[in-house]
Design brief:
One of its GO terms (biological process) is CAAX-box protein maturation. The chain has nine helices and two strands. By secondary structure, the protein is mainly α.
Length: 212
Amino acid sequence: MSHPLHTRAAAVCLAALVLGTVLLHESLTSEPGRGGFYPASVALAVTWAGGAFLAGGMPRDLSTYADRPAWVPGLALGAGLVAIFTLGGFVVGLVPAINAAIRDVLAYSARGSFLAVLVIAIGTGACEELFFRGALFSLLEGRQPVVATTAIYTLVTCATGNVMLVFAAALLGGLTARQRQITGTVLAPILTHGLWSLGMVLILPHVLEMTS
């Protein structure tokens, strides 16, 4: 028989996943530069963060693992991912279909408020980590949480209809889930995701311009 708290956490996570998937679709299928993107994105971040804290199960120690600061692997992996995606951008940017898929996402910062999009990208990324690598990971402990949370994160991202975002979700989700497993914290995944988001918004547009 399931413990009541576990059942409640599962119900909260399921509700957050359904609502979050709908909001993700609304935000990233709206027309760049129009108002719909911003409220949907803010609501999405609130959904992930609210779901995480209502479900519970968050790691208590957010700053250290094995007596070492968790921000070190977080920033290191984030920097590595920025480098990989930047170099990869020079290659995939030469493929018209992939170039177009990436530009579809970057159009939100190009046609709208750059600062607002940057804040949304970093903030939503942090909230995603709180939910997927925080509460959901804890809920699925003992059930292959790295594989399970990565698969769920990737499936949710399919709602964007953008193949490059789905690919990025699979890679980023898998690495940050493994990071959560190793460090036992969500700080490292949050920093990794935040630095990656920063690099994609600031650097990737220039890479695509060079390949055009």
